[in-house]
Each structure stands twice: as structure tokens, then as C-alpha cells.
Amino acid sequence: MHLIRTGLTTAILACCSIWGASVAASDASAALETGAVDTSWMTKAKFGVFMHYQHRILLGYCVRTKPQFPKPAEMSARQWNEFVDGFDAPGFATQMAEARVGWVIFCLDDHYFAWPCAPNRAFSQYTGYGPGQKCSRRDLIMDLADALNAKGVRLICYFAGLNGYMKDPQTYEGLKDDGNSKTPPSAESRERRLAVLREYCQRYKDKVAGWWFDGMEYDSYSDQPNDWRAIEAIVRGANPKAVIAFSAGDNEQACVRRGIDNFTGGDTWSKQELKKLTPEKWPAQGGLLWHGKIYCGNIYHGLGDANQFSDEELVEWINTCNRQGGVCTLDWPFDPRTGLLKEFGLAQLKKIASAVKGPAPH
């Protein structure tokens, strides 16, 4: 998939008022040299793991619980920093390596309430939150990237900051948004949101193998300046090999922006009938790599006390999707205190790896 070059430099130069035109030119220049972005490493790896590491999930809330969301007073900076500080990055990386996982899609933030698990000075400047008050003090993404990369597992960042945070007025107002994720962010909002993304991308560079952008609408970044091409230039200016997915809820196998996204969002929100969730029965559009994302616990993303699928069901699904040219991402319940997968989930993941990839080498 080749990048469309027309108008790229103009779009990028317009989105860098904080860091200056020199940074924008650097982003644009690197993106222009990207060419086709390879997804074959995902195909070879067959499957990955999704981690819904978000404050509300750690508190036991999700769209499948009643109530779905915690009260804002239940979420505190002190508690968030304690959670993030407690995440066992080396232990988690060891789990992923033992299960021969190809990639981990890890939540840098939360679609509804923000709570980034890494500091960001642009975010703090715009929103008025001090260090550690909304963004965690620890840079969990950096620690996790180093731990996973050392084990040969790639990290893809989930990021909702391009069109989210609509349940935290201080955040979305600081980003000059209107509180409605269905309307495209204003020109000033796009500039601010992209400044936050740029800071992360420039920090992590090729330590992050890709980005999975949540909550996107088809017209979210249609207008210049700071349009879809600016997103691409920021991401691939930092890592020319970065894979990109946009999650658009009405069709998770859609190509949201041809020439930019190269694997599908693939998200699901309920227990799936796996025989129907396959590349042949729900094809990917626009030549993208088909991607299916499911949760395997008995409640919802990251929550639960048991598995909801049998080993055989998951093995058959992954093998079917792989055979039809697709890849799969699965999540299991994890311990909010340490971030480690719960034992029943890890045991199932290891069994799946053995069945899909053969016995582990010794």
C-alpha cells in the first residue's frame, strides 16, 4: 500500500505550532520516504494480545457491567499512579514471550476519561492538569516497550486521544473540543490533539511497532490543516515501519483512510459467534490486513474470573482466520494490581500457542 504524497508537506507544516516548522518538516520528510508499510510480520506471528489497561477497567467497570462507568470521584490521581507503578512490565513481558505472542496492543489511555499511563507535557499544558494529576508519573509505555522488545514481542499502542475523552470536561475543553465525539474536532482541537500524539511518537520512535486509534469517525480528520495525512506523517515520521489501524464502530473491517491504515480495527463488544467472524464472511475493505479482536474472559475486556471460549474454539478460529489471510488479537482478564494475566487465562493462551504454532522450542 503506497502513500499518497499530494499536499502532505502543507498539511504537516500547519500542525506544529508548539515545536515549530522544523519538526513538521522532519515529520513530512520521513513520511514521504515511507513507501509501502509491511504487515507480513503480523501474518507470520498469527495472533496477539490486547490489554485494556484503563483506570475504569482496573476498578471493575466496563460497558458490560452495571453501572458501566465509575463516578468521577472514584478515580483519583493517587490511585491511578499506584496502579501504574504496580504494573510488572518484566513479568508481563515474560508471560507474553512464554505464550509466543506476536504483538501486544496496550491502552495508552482511555476513550472516555483519558488517564494516560505515560506523562505528556503537551497534554498537561492544554488541560491544566499538573504532572501526575491525569497522566501517570511513570512512563509505563516506555518500560513496557523495552521489556517486550527485549523478549521479541512487538508493542502496538492503543490511543483514543485523537477523538476521545468526552467524559472528562477539563480534558476535552482544554483540547478545544465540544464534548461530542460524533462531530469532527475543530481545527484548534486537531492541532492540540496531534501535538499530544507527536510527543509520544517522537519519544518512542521504533520502540512502538504501530498505533491502534480508537473512536474515530470517517470525517474526524478530513479538513486541512491537521488532517489524516498529518496523523500518518507524525506516526511514520517517528517510525516509518509503523502499522496503523483506525477503529470506526459501524464497520470494524472498513478502510477508514486509504493509503494510511493498513490493518483493520477489528473490534467487537459482545461474545462472538466465531464461525461468523472470519475474513471470508466479513471481508476487510481496501486491501487492508484483516484483523479480528475478541475478549476471552466471561465479562468483558480485561475483566472476569473464567474463560468464555474453549481451547478448541479459539484454536479453530485462529487457524481459520490465518488460513484465510487474517490475524487475531485476544484479551484475557488480568490482575489490576500487577497487570499480569490471571492464571486461567495465561494457561489457555499457552495451550493456544502450542496448538497454533506447534510445541515450544527448547
Give a description of the structure.
With 362 residues, this protein is α/β, with parallel strands linked by helices. The chain has 13 helices and 7 strands. It has a 7-stranded parallel sheet. Helix 11 (228-238) links the parallel strand 4 and strand 5 (243-246). Helix 6 packs parallel to helix 8 (140-150), helix 7 (121-127) runs antiparallel to helix 10 (187-204) and helix 10 runs parallel beside helix 11. It starts with 7 loop residues before the first helix and ends in a 5-residue tail after the last helix. The relative contact order is 0.16.
Brief digest:
The protein is α/β, with parallel strands linked by helices.
Report strand order across the widest sheet.
Answer: 5-4-3-2-1-7-6
* Number of H/I helices: 13
Cα Rg: 19 Å
Low-confidence stretches: 1-35
Q: Major sheet, described briefly?
A: 7 strands, parallel
Measured as a percent range, the helix fraction is: 25-40%
Strand content: 5-15%
Structural class: alpha/beta
State the end-to-end CA separation: 38 Å
Secondary-structure topology with pairs:
Elements: H1 8-13, H2 21-32, H3 40-45, E1 47-51, H4 55-58, H5 77-86, H6 89-98, E2 103-107, H7 121-127, H8 140-150, E3 154-159, H9 169-174, H10 187-204, E4 210-213, H11 228-238, E5 243-246, E6 290-295, H12 311-323, E7 326-331, H13 343-357
Parallel strand pairs: 1-2, 1-7, 2-3, 3-4, 4-5, 6-7
Annotation keywords:
362 residues; 7-stranded parallel β-sheet; 36% helix; alpha/beta; single chain
